[in-house]
Protein backbone atom coordinates (compact mmCIF):
# COMPACT_ATOMS: atom_id res chain seq x y z
CA UNK A 1 0.00 0.00 0.00
CA UNK A 2 1.38 3.38 -1.02
CA UNK A 3 1.06 6.06 1.64
CA UNK A 4 0.16 9.42 0.21
CA UNK A 5 2.51 12.15 1.35
CA UNK A 6 0.96 15.34 2.65
CA UNK A 7 2.33 18.75 1.58
CA UNK A 8 3.77 19.20 5.08
CA UNK A 9 5.58 15.88 4.79
CA UNK A 10 7.06 16.84 1.41
CA UNK A 11 8.25 20.18 2.77
CA UNK A 12 9.81 18.39 5.75
CA UNK A 13 11.68 15.94 3.50
CA UNK A 14 12.91 18.71 1.20
CA UNK A 15 14.20 20.67 4.19
CA UNK A 16 15.92 17.53 5.48
CA UNK A 17 17.62 16.97 2.13
CA UNK A 18 18.79 20.59 1.95
CA UNK A 19 20.17 20.48 5.50
CA UNK A 20 21.94 17.16 4.90
CA UNK A 21 23.49 18.41 1.66
CA UNK A 22 24.65 21.55 3.44
CA UNK A 23 26.26 19.43 6.18
CA UNK A 24 27.97 17.27 3.56
CA UNK A 25 29.39 20.35 1.83
CA UNK A 26 30.55 21.90 5.11
CA UNK A 27 32.17 18.62 6.14
CA UNK A 28 33.85 17.72 2.86
CA UNK A 29 34.88 21.12 1.51
CA UNK A 30 37.88 21.65 3.83
CA UNK A 31 39.36 18.34 2.64
CA UNK A 32 38.55 19.17 -0.99
CA UNK A 33 40.20 22.58 -0.57
CA UNK A 34 43.35 20.97 0.83
CA UNK A 35 43.51 18.46 -2.04
CA UNK A 36 43.06 21.17 -4.69
CA UNK A 37 45.60 23.43 -2.99
CA UNK A 38 48.20 20.66 -2.77
CA UNK A 39 48.03 20.07 -6.55
CA UNK A 40 47.92 23.75 -7.53
CA UNK A 41 50.75 25.66 -9.15
CA UNK A 42 52.40 27.36 -6.15
CA UNK A 43 52.64 30.86 -7.66
CA UNK A 44 49.00 30.84 -8.77
CA UNK A 45 47.80 29.51 -5.43
CA UNK A 46 49.74 32.14 -3.49
CA UNK A 47 48.04 34.87 -5.52
CA UNK A 48 44.58 33.29 -5.09
CA UNK A 49 42.08 34.54 -2.52
CA UNK A 50 38.75 33.05 -1.47
CA UNK A 51 37.20 29.65 -2.11
CA UNK A 52 38.86 27.03 -4.28
CA UNK A 53 36.78 24.79 -6.54
CA UNK A 54 39.53 23.29 -8.70
CA UNK A 55 43.32 23.04 -8.73
CA UNK A 56 44.95 26.22 -10.03
CA UNK A 57 46.87 24.52 -12.80
CA UNK A 58 48.42 21.15 -11.91
CA UNK A 59 51.75 20.65 -10.20
CA UNK A 60 53.09 17.84 -7.98
CA UNK A 61 56.14 19.75 -6.73
CA UNK A 62 54.60 19.97 -3.24
CA UNK A 63 54.50 16.18 -2.94
CA UNK A 64 57.97 15.81 -4.45
CA UNK A 65 59.40 18.23 -1.91
CA UNK A 66 57.39 16.79 1.00
CA UNK A 67 59.16 13.44 0.81
CA UNK A 68 62.52 15.17 1.05
CA UNK A 69 61.82 16.17 4.66
CA UNK A 70 64.36 14.29 6.80
CA UNK A 71 61.79 13.28 9.44
CA UNK A 72 58.78 12.43 7.29
CA UNK A 73 59.65 8.80 6.48
CA UNK A 74 60.95 8.09 9.98
CA UNK A 75 57.75 9.68 11.35
CA UNK A 76 55.71 7.33 9.16
CA UNK A 77 57.66 4.34 10.46
CA UNK A 78 57.28 5.40 14.09
CA UNK A 79 53.55 6.01 13.69
CA UNK A 80 53.01 2.65 11.98
CA UNK A 81 54.84 0.94 14.83
CA UNK A 82 52.74 2.74 17.45
CA UNK A 83 49.49 2.07 15.57
CA UNK A 84 50.10 -1.63 14.83
CA UNK A 85 51.66 -2.61 18.16
CA UNK A 86 49.46 -0.21 20.12
CA UNK A 87 46.21 -1.51 18.64
CA UNK A 88 47.27 -5.11 19.31
CA UNK A 89 48.03 -4.25 22.95
CA UNK A 90 44.79 -2.25 23.24
CA UNK A 91 42.60 -5.03 21.85
CA UNK A 92 44.31 -7.73 23.91
CA UNK A 93 44.04 -5.93 27.26
CA UNK A 94 40.64 -4.38 26.59
CA UNK A 95 39.23 -7.77 25.58
CA UNK A 96 40.53 -9.46 28.72
CA UNK A 97 39.20 -6.70 30.96
CA UNK A 98 35.85 -6.59 29.15
CA UNK A 99 35.51 -10.36 29.41
CA UNK A 100 36.08 -10.18 33.16
CA UNK A 101 33.53 -7.38 33.59
CA UNK A 102 30.92 -8.98 31.33
CA UNK A 103 30.75 -12.42 32.97
CA UNK A 104 28.16 -13.22 35.62
CA UNK A 105 28.92 -14.05 39.26
CA UNK A 106 32.54 -12.82 39.16
CA UNK A 107 34.09 -12.07 42.56
CA UNK A 108 34.49 -8.34 43.27
CA UNK A 109 33.25 -7.45 39.81
CA UNK A 110 31.15 -4.45 40.87
CA UNK A 111 33.80 -2.72 43.03
CA UNK A 112 36.43 -3.18 40.33
CA UNK A 113 34.05 -1.86 37.67
CA UNK A 114 33.33 1.17 39.88
CA UNK A 115 37.02 2.04 40.22
CA UNK A 116 37.55 1.62 36.48
CA UNK A 117 34.63 3.90 35.62
CA UNK A 118 35.84 6.36 38.28
CA UNK A 119 38.92 7.04 36.12
CA UNK A 120 36.67 8.39 33.34
CA UNK A 121 35.79 11.37 35.52
CA UNK A 122 38.84 11.87 37.75
CA UNK A 123 42.51 11.46 36.95
CA UNK A 124 45.81 12.34 38.56
CA UNK A 125 46.65 14.92 35.92
CA UNK A 126 49.51 15.48 33.52
CA UNK A 127 52.31 15.92 36.07
CA UNK A 128 51.72 12.62 37.95
CA UNK A 129 51.37 10.82 34.62
CA UNK A 130 54.62 12.38 33.37
CA UNK A 131 56.49 11.40 36.54
CA UNK A 132 55.09 7.87 36.45
CA UNK A 133 56.05 7.30 32.81
CA UNK A 134 59.49 8.94 32.92
CA UNK A 135 60.72 8.03 36.42
CA UNK A 136 58.81 4.98 37.67
CA UNK A 137 58.71 3.12 34.34
CA UNK A 138 61.72 4.84 32.71
CA UNK A 139 59.97 5.12 29.34
CA UNK A 140 61.09 8.63 28.41
CA UNK A 141 62.19 8.92 24.78
CA UNK A 142 60.75 5.48 24.03
CA UNK A 143 57.92 4.69 21.62
CA UNK A 144 56.49 2.43 24.33
CA UNK A 145 55.59 5.60 26.24
CA UNK A 146 52.98 6.21 23.52
CA UNK A 147 51.51 2.70 23.92
CA UNK A 148 51.58 1.43 27.49
CA UNK A 149 50.13 4.48 29.35
CA UNK A 150 47.06 4.38 27.07
CA UNK A 151 46.78 0.60 26.82
CA UNK A 152 43.12 0.64 27.90
CA UNK A 153 40.62 3.40 27.24
CA UNK A 154 37.81 3.25 29.80
CA UNK A 155 35.11 4.39 27.39
CA UNK A 156 36.13 1.75 24.84
CA UNK A 157 36.27 -0.83 27.63
CA UNK A 158 32.66 -0.10 28.55
CA UNK A 159 31.58 -0.47 24.93
CA UNK A 160 33.38 -3.78 24.57
CA UNK A 161 32.04 -5.05 27.89
CA UNK A 162 28.49 -4.48 26.68
CA UNK A 163 29.32 -6.12 23.35
CA UNK A 164 30.79 -9.23 25.00
CA UNK A 165 27.88 -9.42 27.42
CA UNK A 166 25.57 -9.94 24.42
CA UNK A 167 27.21 -13.32 23.70
CA UNK A 168 24.88 -16.04 25.09
CA UNK A 169 26.06 -17.55 28.35
CA UNK A 170 24.97 -20.98 27.12
CA UNK A 171 27.91 -21.05 24.70
CA UNK A 172 30.32 -20.44 27.54
CA UNK A 173 28.69 -23.19 29.60
CA UNK A 174 28.97 -25.64 26.71
CA UNK A 175 32.64 -24.80 26.27
CA UNK A 176 33.29 -25.33 29.97
CA UNK A 177 31.70 -28.77 29.80
CA UNK A 178 34.15 -29.60 27.01
CA UNK A 179 37.04 -28.52 29.22
CA UNK A 180 37.75 -25.05 27.77
CA UNK A 181 39.43 -22.46 29.99
CA UNK A 182 38.81 -18.73 30.15
CA UNK A 183 41.35 -17.80 27.47
CA UNK A 184 40.02 -20.47 25.11
CA UNK A 185 36.47 -19.24 25.63
CA UNK A 186 37.50 -15.62 25.13
CA UNK A 187 39.65 -15.98 22.01
CA UNK A 188 37.89 -18.87 20.26
CA UNK A 189 34.24 -18.29 21.12
CA UNK A 190 33.44 -14.84 22.54
CA UNK A 191 35.64 -12.58 20.39
CA UNK A 192 34.76 -14.24 17.03
CA UNK A 193 31.08 -13.73 17.83
CA UNK A 194 31.73 -10.11 18.85
CA UNK A 195 33.75 -9.17 15.76
CA UNK A 196 31.62 -6.07 14.96
CA UNK A 197 32.51 -4.65 18.37
CA UNK A 198 36.16 -5.64 17.97
CA UNK A 199 36.27 -3.92 14.56
CA UNK A 200 34.92 -0.72 16.09
CA UNK A 201 37.57 -0.92 18.80
CA UNK A 202 40.28 -1.35 16.16
CA UNK A 203 39.02 1.74 14.38
CA UNK A 204 38.74 3.81 17.57
CA UNK A 205 42.17 2.84 18.87
CA UNK A 206 43.78 3.10 15.43
CA UNK A 207 42.49 6.63 14.83
CA UNK A 208 43.54 7.62 18.36
CA UNK A 209 47.11 6.41 17.88
CA UNK A 210 47.39 7.84 14.38
CA UNK A 211 46.26 11.32 15.45
CA UNK A 212 48.01 11.37 18.82
CA UNK A 213 50.76 13.97 19.25
CA UNK A 214 50.41 15.35 22.78
CA UNK A 215 51.96 12.39 24.62
CA UNK A 216 54.76 12.34 22.06
CA UNK A 217 55.47 16.01 22.77
CA UNK A 218 55.80 15.12 26.48
CA UNK A 219 57.84 11.93 26.34
CA UNK A 220 59.75 11.85 23.03
CA UNK A 221 62.98 13.86 22.90
CA UNK A 222 64.82 12.50 19.85
CA UNK A 223 63.57 13.89 16.52
CA UNK A 224 64.17 10.54 14.81
CA UNK A 225 61.53 9.02 17.16
CA UNK A 226 58.88 11.65 16.45
CA UNK A 227 55.57 10.16 15.24
CA UNK A 228 54.10 11.54 12.04
CA UNK A 229 51.65 13.90 13.72
CA UNK A 230 54.42 15.55 15.75
CA UNK A 231 56.45 16.02 12.57
CA UNK A 232 53.37 17.50 10.91
CA UNK A 233 52.80 19.83 13.86
CA UNK A 234 56.41 20.97 13.75
CA UNK A 235 56.17 21.76 10.05
CA UNK A 236 52.84 23.60 10.25
CA UNK A 237 53.34 25.57 13.46
CA UNK A 238 57.05 26.27 13.18
CA UNK A 239 56.85 26.87 9.42
CA UNK A 240 59.74 24.45 9.08
CA UNK A 241 59.75 24.04 5.30
CA UNK A 242 63.20 25.39 4.52
CA UNK A 243 64.73 21.90 4.38
CA UNK A 244 62.21 20.85 1.73
CA UNK A 245 62.35 23.86 -0.58
CA UNK A 246 65.98 23.46 -1.52
CA UNK A 247 66.61 23.75 -5.24
CA UNK A 248 63.68 26.16 -5.66
CA UNK A 249 64.48 29.73 -6.67
CA UNK A 250 64.12 32.32 -3.91
CA UNK A 251 61.07 33.92 -5.52
CA UNK A 252 59.12 30.67 -5.50
CA UNK A 253 60.10 29.31 -2.07
CA UNK A 254 57.27 31.07 -0.24
CA UNK A 255 54.70 29.83 -2.76
CA UNK A 256 56.01 26.26 -2.65
CA UNK A 257 56.02 26.27 1.14
CA UNK A 258 52.30 27.12 1.15
CA UNK A 259 51.26 24.23 -1.10
CA UNK A 260 53.77 22.03 0.71
CA UNK A 261 51.83 22.34 3.96
CA UNK A 262 48.65 21.10 2.29
CA UNK A 263 50.48 18.21 0.64
CA UNK A 264 51.85 17.07 4.00
CA UNK A 265 48.35 17.17 5.50
CA UNK A 266 47.12 14.88 2.71
CA UNK A 267 50.08 12.54 3.15
CA UNK A 268 49.36 12.27 6.87
CA UNK A 269 45.58 11.85 6.51
CA UNK A 270 44.99 9.52 3.55
CA UNK A 271 46.35 6.28 5.12
CA UNK A 272 43.94 6.32 8.06
CA UNK A 273 41.05 7.21 5.73
CA UNK A 274 41.82 4.10 3.68
CA UNK A 275 41.29 1.87 6.72
CA UNK A 276 37.65 2.84 7.22
CA UNK A 277 36.15 1.11 4.13
CA UNK A 278 37.48 -2.25 5.36
CA UNK A 279 35.73 -1.81 8.73
CA UNK A 280 32.61 -0.02 7.51
CA UNK A 281 30.41 -3.14 7.34
CA UNK A 282 31.09 -3.81 11.02
CA UNK A 283 30.95 -0.22 12.20
CA UNK A 284 27.23 0.54 12.58
CA UNK A 285 26.42 -2.89 13.98
CA UNK A 286 29.32 -2.75 16.41
CA UNK A 287 28.40 0.69 17.70
CA UNK A 288 24.79 -0.36 18.24
CA UNK A 289 25.82 -3.54 20.07
CA UNK A 290 28.12 -1.57 22.29
CA UNK A 291 25.60 1.21 22.92
CA UNK A 292 22.47 -0.78 23.74
CA UNK A 293 22.50 -3.04 26.76
CA UNK A 294 20.47 -6.19 26.29
TrEMBL record:
GO biological process: one example: transmembrane transport
Transmembrane spans: 12-36, 80-100, 112-131, 143-164, 185-207, 262-279
Cellular component, GO, one term: plasma membrane
Gene3D superfamilies: MetI-like
Keyword Zinc annotated: no
Family matches, as InterPro entries: MetI-like, MetI-like_sf
Presence of keyword Transmembrane: yes
The name this protein goes by in its record: Carbohydrate ABC transporter permease
Subcellular location: Cell membrane
Entry keywords, A to Z: Cell membrane, Membrane, Transmembrane, Transmembrane helix, Transport
Pfam families recorded: BPD_transp_1
Similarity field: Belongs to the binding-protein-dependent transport system permease family.
Membrane topology type: Multi-pass membrane protein
Domain ABC transmembrane type-1: 76-273
